[in-house]
Amino acid sequence: MVIEVNAIREAYHLRLKQLLLTSLIIIFIVYLIALLAIHATDEQLVQDKATLCGTLAAMLGIAIVFLVICFCFQLKRLVSYILASAMWCILLGLVFLHQFLVPIQGIHTVGLLFIVLLVTPTILFPRKYLISLICEAITVAAFLLFNQVFSSLTPYPASEMAAIILISVCHSCVALFFQYQLSIYDQKSFKHIQDAIIARTTLEKEKNEQELLLLSAIPAHIAVQLKQQLLEKQQDHRASVRAENIFGRKFRDMHISKHDHVSILFADVVNFTPLAEILTPRKLVEVLNRLFAKFDALAQENDCMRIKLLGDCYYCISGLPISRPGHAKNCVQMGLDMIKAIRGLHESTQCDMDMRIGVHTGAVLCGLLGVRKFQFDIYSLDVTIANRLESTGMPGKVHVSNEVVQLLISDYQFERGNGENRDSFLKENILPKHVAERFLEIRSINEALKEPYHESYDNIAVLFASIPNYVDIYGKIRNEDYKENLRVLNEIIVEFDEQLCRPKFSSVDKIKTCGSTYMAAAGLNPGLNANNSLTSNPELQNRPVLVMTEYALTLFKVMKEINENYLQDFGLRVGICNGPAVAGIIGTLKPVYDIWGNTVNVASRMDSTGEMGKIQVPQHTATILTDAGYKCEARGEILVKGKGRMVTYWIRPEPVGRVSINKKNSERHMHGTSVRRSP
Questions:
Q1: CB within 8 Å of 398: residues ≥ 6 apart
Q2: Selection from 625, 484, 474 nearest residue 553 by Cα
Q3: What are the CA-CA distances from residue 63 to residues 15, 67, 89 (Å)?
Q4: Which of 415, 488, 527, 533 has its Cβ near the most Cβ atoms within 10 Å?
Q5: Which of 158, 365, 346, 382 lies closest to 258 in space, CA to CA?
Q6: Which DSSP category does 113 fall into?
Q7: DSSP 8-state secondary structure symbol assigned to residue 124
Q8: Where are the alpha helices (DSSP H) in 216-280?
Q9: What is the structure's pLDDT at 660?
Q10: Are 612 and 572 in contact (CB under 8 A)?
Q11: Structure confidence at residue 328 (pLDDT)
C-alpha cells in the first residue's frame, strides 16, 4: 500500500512539473515573439539584426517543439529532466544573447538572470536541491564571465559583481528554502492522503469480505433489504417499529416475502451415513465439496437458486426471486442432472452413492428468522410436501407431486409413486465465528477446491431441538396467513439464539435451523484435538456434552416462558449425542459450513424418535451425564433408522406447557431456578 501511495505521489509531482513546464514554455514563447517584433522593427537596438532574429527564431522553434511534446505526451521522469535541462540551457543562452547583442546595458539583462535563478529550483528542478544549486552557480558564474570576456556591454565593476553575487545567493537561498518548506508540507499532505487511502482501502476490503460472507448465506435481494434497513436505523437513530400481538407484546423484525408460483427441489444423498464412517475427514470433505460444487453449477444452468446444504441434503428453488414460467421444468431437469452427476462421481471415486429427489410446485414465504447467525430459508406447507416427496422417493428417480405432473405432462414420462410414510426431518449449514475467519482467507473458488477447510474432532456434543406440534398448529395454514404465524417461530428462534450470548454457553455454536428444528454443537474448537488436550483430560473431554445438556434444559425453560407470553402450547423435543465428528466448508457459489459423522446422525435420530417434553440420549452419553449428577431414565431399546436397535435414555426437564393466566405471574419468578439433579 505504501508503494502504491508513493507511486501516486510521484505521478502527481511529475504531472505538476509538466504543467508548470508547459506554462513556462508558453511564457517563453510569448516573450520571444515580443522580442522578435521589437528588434525586427527597430534597427537602433541591435548591432546585428539578422543574427539576433535568427537566433530568436531558432529558440522560438525549439520552444514550440517542447510545447507540442508537453501537450501531446505524458512525460516520464527521464524525459522531463531532459526537457527541463534543455529549457535551462535555452534560458541561459537568452541571457548571453542579451549581453552580446543589446548595445544598451539595462536592468532587463540582470532581471532576466534573476528570472532564470527563480525558475530553476521552482519549475525546472523542483525538490532537487543539489541540481538546482549547481545550475544556479553555473548560471551566475557564466553570466559574470561572459560579461567580462565576451559581452559587447561595459563590464561590471567589482562592486556590482559582488552585489550581483550576493543578491543571487540570497535569491537562491530564499527559493530553495521555499521549496524545502513546500516539500515538507507536501510530505505531510501525502502522509494524510496515504493514511486516508489505507483506511478507505482497508474498509473497502473488509466491506467486500463481509459482503462475500453475507452473500454466502443470504440471496442478494434479501441482503440489499437487510443493509437498507440497517442504514435507515443508523440514520434515524431510533429503534425500529415492531408489530404487536393482541397481548401488547412486541414482535421482533422479520424479513419475509411471499412468492406464489415456484417449484421446490429436495435431494438427499443415498448411502451417505456408512460412507461418512469409512472415509477419512479430508476425503469426506473433498467428496462432498466436489459433489455440491457440481450441484451449484447445475443450479445455475437450470435457473435454480440453492437454499441450503443440509449435511448430505441439498435443496433449491426455481422462480425466486425472479418469477420464471418454467420453474417446474427447471427443478425436474435439475433433479435428473443431479442423478447423472452423482453416478459420474461414483465411477470416478468408487463411492457407492445415489440421489433421492422430490419436487413440488406451490407457494412459499422466504426470508430470515432469528438474530444470531440468521440464514435464508423458505417456509410453507408446499415446502413440507416437497421434503416428504424426497424422503418417500426411490434412489435414482425424481419423485414429483400431481401439481408438477399437470405442468409437465407433455414434457416427461411419469409413473405412479408412493406418497405415504413421509419424513419431514431436515438439516442445514451456516458459518460459526472461527470458520468465518477461515472463509475470509479464501481468495478464489479454485483455492477453496484445492484445500477445502476441514477439522476432525474426537468429542463434541450435537443437539437437535424441534417443535413437533408447530406443524400441527401452523403447518396446514395456507400462505395467506403464514407470514403472521412465522412471527411466533421467529420469536422462538431469537430466544434460542440469545441464550448463546450467555458466558456459560460460549462453547456452543448454532449450526443451523430448518423450519421448526434447531441444531447446535458444543466443542467446535479448531485445532484443539491436534495436541490431544481433550483426550488427556477427562473433565475437558466431557465438558461439551455437559454444557450442551445445560443449554437444552435452558431451552425448555425458554419455551415455557414463550408459551406463557403467547398463550401457546408448543412442545419441545430434544436429542443429544456426543462423540467424534468431521467439520468442513463445502460448496462453490455459496460455501457453507457443516458437521458430519455418526454423532450427528445419532443426535438427529434421538430427536426424531424422541417425545415432546423430553431429552433423549444414547447409552454412552447417558453414562457421562449420570456420572456428572444428572438423573437419566432408561427408555430401553428402540429401532433407529440406519442404526438398528439402540438403548436410549430420557432426561426429563420441567413441563413447558401453557399455564393458566391466573398462574402466569405467580410462576414466572420460578423461571431462573437451577437444573434439578439427583442427590
A1: 332, 335, 336, 339, 357, 358, 359
A2: 625
A3: 19, 6, 12
A4: 488
A5: 365
A6: H
A7: I
A8: 220-236, 272-278
A9: 37
A10: yes
A11: 93
Q: Give yes or no for a contact between 547 and 625, defined as CB atoms under 8 angstroms apart.
A: no
Helix axis angle for 661-668 and 538-566, nearest 10°, is 140
The total of other beta-carbon atoms located within 10 Å of residue 147's CB is 24
**Under DSSP, is residue 352 helix (H, G, I), strand (E, B) or coil?**
coil
Overall size of the chain counted in residues? 679
Task: Classify each residue of 332-369 as buried b or exposed e, where b means 16 or more C-beta atoms within 10 Å of its C-beta.
Answer: bbbbbbbbebbeebeeeeebebbbbbbbbbbbbbbbbb
CA distance 357 to 315: 9
pLDDT computed for residue 573 by the predictor: 95
Q: Is the dihedral of CA 391, 397, 399, 404 positive or negative?
A: positive
Residue 34 in grid coordinates:
515580443
What is the per-residue pLDDT for 578? 95
Interatomic CA distance for residues 58 and 289, integer angstroms: 75
What cell numbers appear for 231 in the block? 442504514
Rounded mean pLDDT for each run of 10 residues along the chain, 679 residues in total: 65 81 86 79 62 80 86 79 85 75 57 78 78 84 77 72 83 78 78 80 79 69 71 57 44 73 92 78 83 90 88 88 89 93 74 86 82 74 87 89 89 72 43 56 46 81 91 56 71 87 88 87 69 56 92 93 82 94 74 85 93 94 92 91 89 62 35 31
User: C-alpha cell of 607?
Assistant: 430427536
Comparing C-alpha atoms, which of 24, 57, 63 is closest to residue 39?
57
Phi, psi angles (nearest 5°) of residue 246: -70, -15
Q: Is the peptide bond prior to 321 cis by the omega test (within 30 degrees of 0)?
A: yes
Tell me whether strands 313-318 and 255-270 are parallel, antiparallel or unpaired. Answer: antiparallel
Q: 572 to each of 7, 327, 356, 612, 668, how far by Cα in Å?
A: 63, 36, 29, 5, 19
The predicted model scores a pTM of: 0.51
- Residue 523 in contact with residue 459, Cβ under 8 Å? yes
Write out the E strands in 351-401. 354-369, 375-379, 397-400
Yes or no: say if 81 and 71 are a contact pair by the CB < 8 Å rule.
no
Write out the three cell numbers for 528. 484443539
Sequence-distant (6+) residues with CB within 8 A of 364 are 258, 259, 262, 264, 317, 320, 378, 379, 380, 382, 383, 479
- Give 255's strand partners: 368
Residue 455 contacts residue 594 (beta carbons within 8 Å): no
Nearest to 428 by CA among 670, 266, 569: 266
And the C-alpha cell for 648? 436410549
Candidates 89, 107, 87; CA nearest to 98 is 107
Quote the cell numbers at residue 191: 502522509
Residue whose C-alpha is closest to residue 109's, from 125, 92, 124, 133: 92
